[in-house]
Specification:
- The chain is α+β, with helices and mostly antiparallel strands and 80 residues long.
- 32% of the residues lie in helices and 10% in strands.
- The chain contains 3 helices and 2 strands.
- The chain is globular, with a radius of gyration of 19 Å.
């Protein structure tokens, strides 16, 4: 009985899984976010955020590249 109930839940189109897409948190950008980062890392860059009080920041592909360029010298020598 339990297996039948579980399988019927998976087959029901009304019970489908909704995927939440985050939007980039950079001021003026409405693209879909690719990655998220700690606010401390992003605050070291020139990126202007919509909500500077957030704990984590979602970035689109374009702004992620900017983050990488501006923080690539922050990697300690012993890591690479």
């Amino acid at each position: 009985m339990c297996r039948k109930l579980i399988s019927s839940l998976y087959d029901n189109p009304n019970m489908s899984h909704v995927v939440k897409q985050d939007i980039c948190d950079v001021e003026g950008c409405d693209k879909v976010a690719e990655r998220s980062f700690n606010i401390k890392k992003v605050s070291e860059t020139s990126l202007t955020l919509k909500n500077p009080d957030a704990r984590s920041v979602h970035l689109c592909k374009e702004h992620y590249k900017i983050l990488k360029k501006e923080t690539k010298d922050d990697i300690p020598d012993y890591l690479g």
